[in-house]
Amino acid sequence: MIPTKQHLEEAIATVTPFVHQTPIVTSSSLNEIVGAQLYFKCENFQKMGAFKMRGAVHAIQNLSHAQKKAGVVTHSSGNFGQAVALAARILKVQAYVVMPENAPLVKKEGVKSYGAQITECESTLAAREATAAAIQLKTGATFLHPSNNIDVILGNATAGAELLQKHADLDFLLTPVGGGGLIAGTALATHYLSGNCKTIGGEPFAVDDAYRSLQSGKIETNQTTQTVADGLRTNLGDLNFPIIQELVSEIIRVEEDEIIHGMKLIWERMKIVVEPSSAVPFAAALREKDHFRNKKIGIILSGGNVDVSNLPF
């Protein structure tokens, strides 16, 4: 089922008081390089450093009083774990976060600093799911999926909604595609809040499951996770895929060197810190310049949680 415009409006009302209205930044030099007018929605300046704060807040706020009392559990190697931990702290709910033992120490410290209880497990999806299920059984906590949850998707939609409220005349709105929660939410925002803006995804060739899923009409998976865009290594889900199928115009794939080049340009020209996944939609705009020439393009910079001691350039 595709959420309605009323669902989106309720999500905006619920999420707005708890998140930053992140800035929209332009760069004349990047406009010149692409040959289009670019509007970057800087979710790297969001609380905990990524758009995922929006989905976490919305999902927790939509729980019943009894569910809030029992707490929430998720499994995450980083950003969504931090988002759930911080949102839960703000909303006075206990959070349990399952993290693979090889997750970056900086991300574990982040989750801990927000007051969540961390349980480490082997770095396989099966181990993450089993550990989260055991915590659910023991505590009665509600499981929150990072991207395949309608309340998370609607929360994510608020970033695109804020951009469209300021720039209603965008021709395209570009986002990265990983688990599908951001692009599905963004597509809802463009569908309900804009006349003719099209939602386009950017995805690495190395993990192009969403591109192939749109081609085949069923959820495809990846054989490898070898991409510098570590936030985009996950697969689409059965709740976000129907929204993507119906409302996303296309997905543009980019090479690893294009992602790194795009990331470097954003750092150098805009003087802001973004993670590799954030650079993927900008890399898509660079790759398909003819497609976007003289158009108005929104780009969601999804996050800035990058290990600065291990940059790809």
Topology readout:
Blueprint lengths: L4 H11 L8 E2 L2 H7 L2 E6 L9 H10 L3 H6 L1 E4 L3 H12 L4 E6 L4 H9 L3 E5 L3 H15 L2 E2 L6 H17 L5 E5 L4 H13 L4 E7 L4 H8 L24 H7 E7 L1 H15 L5 H12 L1 H4 L3 E6 L12
Parallel strand pairs: 2-10, 3-4, 3-6, 4-5, 7-8, 7-10, 8-9
Antiparallel strand pairs: 1-2
Helix pairs in contact: 1-8, 3-5, 3-8, 5-6, 8-9, 9-11, 12-13
List the keywords:
single chain; L-serine ammonia-lyase activity; alpha/beta; magnesium ion binding; 313 residues; threonine racemase activity; TrpB-like_PALP; lyase; Rossmann fold
Description:
Residues 15-303 form the Tryptophan synthase beta chain-like PALP domain. Pfam families: PALP. This is Pyridoxal-phosphate dependent enzyme. Keywords: Lyase, Pyridoxal phosphate. With 313 residues, the chain is α/β, with parallel strands linked by helices. It has two domains: 5-48 and 153-301, 3-Layer(aba) Sandwich (Rossmann fold); 53-143, 3-Layer(aba) Sandwich (Rossmann fold). The protein has helices at 5-15, 28-34, 52-61, 65-70, 79-90, 105-113, 125-139, 150-166, 181-193, 209-216, 241-247, 256-270, 276-287, 289-292, and strands at residues 24-25, 37-42, 72-75, 95-100, 117-121, 142-143, 172-176, 198-204, 248-254, 296-301. A six-stranded mixed β-sheet has the order 1-2-10-7-8-9, sandwiched between helices. Helix 9 (181-193) links the parallel strand 7 and strand 8. The radius of gyration is 18 Å and the shape is globular. The relative contact order is 0.16. The mean pLDDT is 95.
